[in-house]
Amino acid sequence: MFTRPGSIAVLLPVKSPGTGKSRLSALRGPQRALLAAAFATDVVDACLRTEGVAGVLVVSDDADFAATLAARGAETCADPGGGLNAALRHAATHLHAGRPDLRPAALCGDLPALVPADLAAALADAVTDSGPCFVRDADRTGTTLYCAEYDDFDPRFGPGSAAAHAAAGARPLAGELSSLRRDVDDVDGLAAAVALGVGASSADVLRGIGRLPR
Length: 214
Known about the structure:
CATH topology: Spore Coat Polysaccharide Biosynthesis Protein SpsA, Chain A
CATH class: Alpha Beta
Oligomer: single chain
CATH architecture: Alpha-Beta Complex
Largest sheet: 7 strands, mixed
CATH superfamily: Spore Coat Polysaccharide Biosynthesis Protein SpsA, Chain A
């Protein structure tokens, strides 16, 4: 499992694109599905260009879509059900069986503007000590990245996740990290991501649906 140099494995939870991004209500269902798939594709691509990332493990309930991410260089495992945090714990257990030397980092799949420099900076900070740490999202209430040693890996994604991670003793990572903090939950978040500059897959979809100039 994984052949790249690095000490971190990114765990990427990915729902079936057809069920994602329901809050982007300004877009039709098929457009939202295309965009959700493009977001995850750009995140995988950015991770695999990031120094220190040994690989990406996608945990998904959609085997067909997971296969498209595997073709880009990710490893995959099936989502066992039970919600996002259960999926991430399952992925960490799966990873530990093959690569106990790595440190798992859970990352959101809706970061279309993610650039490797921001992710590398956050991960470099994360490994300065062995304790759990996390990155607040741009609204400062959610979490886009959570990293911990296997024995301490206890993700608490969901509403109010930043406060939940902090209350559990995780250290918030400092720094601007603008592309890493910019998740997309709604049309305002999408506009902010576009202003930062989205990845190639997201840009292609946005042009196709008239949300970016050609």
